[in-house]
Model the fold of this input.
Amino acid sequence: MCLAIPGKVVSIEYSNGMRVGRVEFGGIVRQASLDFVPEAQIGDYVMVHVGFAISLVDAEEAERTYQLLEEIGALEGELPPEGSG
Amino acid sequence: MADSVKTIASLSCPAPLTTRDRVLLGHGSGGKLSAELVRDIFLPAFQNPALAKLDDQAIVNVNGSRIAVTTDSFVVKPLFFRGGDIGSLSVHGTINDLAMGGAQPQFLSAAFIIEEGFSMEMLRRIVSSLQRAAGEAGVQVITGDTKVVEKGKGDGLFINTTGIGIVPHGLDLSADRARPGDKVLLSGSIGDHGIAILAQREGLEFESAIESDSAALHGLVSEMLKSSNAIRCMRDPTRGGLSSTLNEIAEQSRVGIELDEQSIPVRDDVKGACEMLGLDPLYVANEGKLVAIVAPDAAGAVLGAMRGHPLGKQARVIGTVNDKNAGLVTMRTPLGTSRIVDMLSGDQLPRIC
Amino acid sequence: MKFLDEYRDSRIALALAKEIAERTTKPWVLMEICGGQTHTIMRYGLDELLPNHIELVHGPGCPVCVTPLETIDKAIALALRPEVILVSYGDMLRVPGSNSDLFRAKAQGADVRIAYSPMEAVKIARANPDRKVVFLAIGFETTAPANAMAAWQAKREGLTNLSLLVSHVLVPPAIRALLATAENRVQGFIAPGHVCTIMGYSEYEGLVRDFNLPIVVGGFEPVDLLEAVLMLVKQLELGETRVENQYVRSVTYKGNERAQEIMREVFEIADQKWRGIGMIPRSGLRLSKAYAAYDANLIFDLELISAEEPAECISALVLQGLKKPTDCTAFAIRCTPENPLGAPMVSAEGACAAYYHYRRHAIANTAPKIAVGS
Done:
């Protein structure tokens, strides 16, 4: 339960007592409630599910762990092909 | 393995006959339910060879000339959208159905079903747009009809257009002609129209506005036909998307089709909208794109002709016809694994899971 | 799209698959809980990339599939009332009830509307003061805070024409119930990343302790799932049992405390019936007493005809990972997405629908399987 996608907060405003952001997902922009992520600022990435941001994407953590994945990818790419096939 | 292949082949036929007492919205979405309706109600009633081919248009012989006829009804909401309106759409859609059979579109009829209370100004705009689209495409609207229904019984406006064109002798484009080895060509990015409509309906904002790709394709088709006589068939993937169209071709030709996911163009903003709503672009409607099944050695020439035309600049080879699993469309994912691209049963609905 | 595309990188995915194969020396049965994860596995053919020794079974991670039959029937009954506007997520429209589904009800004239967000139900209620708006509030913990906001906002505004028909399920009790059954074969779990985004993963420590097996919180893209499998395999091969977090970019140990607060205010824990599984104590949510005025169950007088699932449907066994959809005698023959016998065939995330639409098991696999332990 499940479908939440990452988007960038491009603007923030208050509407009907809720803190709402315009969030950009790869070229399209949609409003999402930021009530669950009060620390989110413009430029931050948030995971959005049914119109609500449910987490602030931890860009640092993502970067760190992604480096490791990159290394695995690069390393495997350099190894000679499997002998047995 | 042979047994499971055979089982899968029979599984890809429409679902077993079920008694339904009511027509559902899904029956109009261009997927399996639509096919069921045609198969269970319309085909048995009308039975004739031209209809049985189930192409986008019917081609009949009249005093030595090959006349192509097609009809289409337009119920789109909203009536006006980025990149067009119900008027221009009703011209493009019908011209395209004629063009897919290789016909030179000549004449259109336009019938309007208008709801009482509809704005005269909007009607003028729509008719004007229809005329402009017809003029640009070189076809004349030669006859029409108007009906007005009571307020509440008509959802604003419906338009039906019927098109007539002439097909040159010797040209035989049909969905049952695909053969193993043939290449599958796509003229450009998918999902634009469906997402443009949805965006307008749902108030989605776009940085660079997504426009419907609604366009008349007969000019592009003409260039393609000039470049090669080895085109087996062409189809425009409208409701039900690319998936429905390819499934229909695979079914009618009794062949398999394998697609390469990475070669199918999707605009970034369309992709973003699809990701957000949980939609798959393969099932989203297009109104200005076509797929062509082409003999392998002709693919290069046809692709060149497509790319030379403004409506085919992004044309790609997206797959190959094979003889495994007749009636099945499969797709190679970027990971090198394989999955089936099934025909949808009804409308694709946005999801949260 | 940033934070999405990178996790679909095929080079990394294939490298992870290779490493999984290198480290797997024994057979392991792993379960992913979330339907969205099942969807990714099917769509990208991830199980094709895993060595034969690893068996992936699909858990009851589809809140649509496990919504009780009675709830669907209630929703349909309400939708058919002329004064009611029934608002629902798209996923629920085709789920079969005892005799019908919401789509068919719509065909019969019911005012059924699809919402992308629970706040749309609030908007509809504001715009239609003379109608009664019922929002079919389903989901796991991921969706509960958002659904709660609809009730919270309605209360704040003093709206009196909005109510929620709630069917919320909680993951950890379901896993506990699964692990406690005698037939359980699962040796490691991929926990649902978006549920944990809300709830954190402290609840899974108790499971690890009581049942002695590894649990990894996983994301939803191919790289996420393969990394989660690798982390599980590493633990299993070493005989370790702990909770690990693969989905670090979204999940923290404590989760989203603001969201949890809203959940606690609007909902309370209750016993819940899981369609196809049965009653699991304290595994669901219902509206709290403070929100009784928004509870459709209390507002409307609903008499029900309780019917049974078609005998042939084995969704109970599929949802628990004990059988595969292809083991079902009705699969793809009498039970199809157009004519589903049970919920897992309808929901895009249901295991049966995933198998049907992608039907990968049936295609001749031309990609060479990576050898185990090479």
In short: Residues 1-19 of chain B have pLDDT under 50 and may be disordered. Residues 53-167 of chain B form a domain with the 60s Ribosomal Protein L30; Chain: A; fold (CATH 3.30.1330.10). The interface with chain C takes residues 1, 4-5, 7-8, 11, 15-16, 18, 22-26, 32-33, 36, 202, 268, 271-272, 275, 277-278, 324-325, 328, 330, 333-340, 342, 345-346, 349-353 of chain B (CB under 8 Å). The radius of gyration of chain B is 20 Å.
